[in-house]
Design brief:
With 332 residues, the chain is of the alpha/beta class. It is 39% helix and 17% strand. It folds into two domains: 202 residues, Rossmann fold, CATH 3.40.50; 107 residues, UDP-galactose 4-epimerase, domain 1. Uridine-5'-diphosphate binds next to helix 7 and strand 8.
């Protein structure tokens, strides 16, 4: 299939682009490179398949969709940091909601009917029950989650109006790196737990600050569902088989298991062989105690299942990437 990946220069986008190529698809990337990396595109689809453009440039989107005869769009371009979204909500709404609406309009004009998009566990807010199923109420507690909810609502409208076929994958915590060691997580500034912890092992930080040790969890630290980025990428391939016109289908993409911050730290210590000092800090605003997925809908309907089922396996791939490329894509 001829596929356009928006945000294909990013962390999840680059792994998804590679998975698509490995499955025999023809892939183009659209990215404004505000957060993504040209090098990541070079290592996947190649720079001749990269368009550097804004999602807000609807005419340009129509042009690419038409010129390359795109049949399916995988829309991953978005801002995704909770803390940043709280400080700069307008920027988040403009990019995540406005950008998606521009893309929907361009697809309508170019008569492209198939769309797979990234959504997030943040749309559920702080559910009182675990694990989270897709039928839980959407009640985001931060601006990032709110923007993704607005995007989902826009898609529901577009699907019914334009006969669009949409799958929205609600990612849990993307983690790890490509086992080849040449694609991985490279954010500036870095805010995610595993890269930060491994940066301590590399001597780039003095310690890990654990954001709260008094949560209602077995060891007092927050529990999340860490899902390997290659497993996330594979979910997009599976989603292609279930697209149905006029509908938006939602799937949780997580392992179904929760891992605490302390358990992640232990795994990083074991894998890196470094003591990785930590200090107990205050809670980070907006962090729920526990979040993990019920992934049974993805398992049964998408025929998807995670290959990386232990946190150590996930951390091993992240460690290979961070130790081989301590400065991310700038390491060369
Ligand atoms: N976390 C932490 N110290 C850090 C970064 C993250 O204790 O320096 C915790 C954070 O509070 C959360 C978990 O690690 O409970 C995962 O956070 P991350 O930012 O990686 O992902 P999020 O769940 O926010 O998408």
């Amino acid at each position: 299939m001829r596929i356009l990946v928006t945000g294909g220069a990013g962390y999840i986008g680059s792994h998804t682009a590679r998975a698509l190529l490995e499955n025999g698809h023809k892939v183009w990337v659209l990215d404004n490179l505000s957060r993504g990396h040209k090098e990541a595109v070079q290592r996947t689809v190649g720079l001749d398949r990269l368009t550097i453009a804004s999602l807000h440039d609807t005419d340009r989107l129509v042009q690419i969709l038409t010129l390359q005869e795109i049949e399916l769009v995988i829309h991953l371009a978005a801002f995704s940091l909770v803390g940043e979204s709280q400080k700069q909500p307008e920027m988040y709404f403009r990019n995540n909601v406005g950008g998606s609406q521009s893309l929907i309009s361009a697809m309508h004009q170019a008569n492209v009917k198939k769309l797979i998009v990234s959504s997030t566990t943040a749309v559920y807010g702080t559910p009182s029950q675990m694990p989270i199923t897709e039928s839980f109420e959407r009640a985001p507690v931060n601006q990032y989650g709110q923007t993704k909810l607005e995007m989902e609502l826009s898609l529901e409208h577009a699907a019914s109006q334009n006969d669009l076929a949409v799958v929205a994958l609600r990612y849990f915590n993307a983690a790890g790196a490509h086992p080849n060691g040449d694609l991985g997580e490279d954010h500036d500034p870095e805010t995610h737990l595993i890269p930060i912890t491994l940066q301590v092992a590399l001597g780039q930080r003095e310690h890990l600050t654990i954001f709260g040790n008094d949560y209602a969890t077995p060891d007092g630290t927050c529990v999340r569902d860490y899902v390997h980025v290659c497993d996330l990428a594979a979910a997009h391939i599976c989603a292609m088989d279930v697209l149905r016109n006029g509908t938006v289908q939602y799937f949780n993409i997580g392992t179904g298991a929760g891992t605490s911050v302390s358990e992640v730290l232990d795994a990083c210590r074991k894998v890196s062989g470094h003591p990785i000092p930590s200090v107990d800090g205050i809670r980070r605003s907006g962090d729920p105690d526990i979040l993990y997925a019920d992934n049974s809908k993805a398992v049964s309907e998408l025929n998807w299942s995670p290959k990386y089922t232990s946190i150590e396996q996930i951390v091993e791939t992240a460690w290979r990437w961070h130790s081989d490329s301590p400065n991310g894509y700038r390491s060369g």
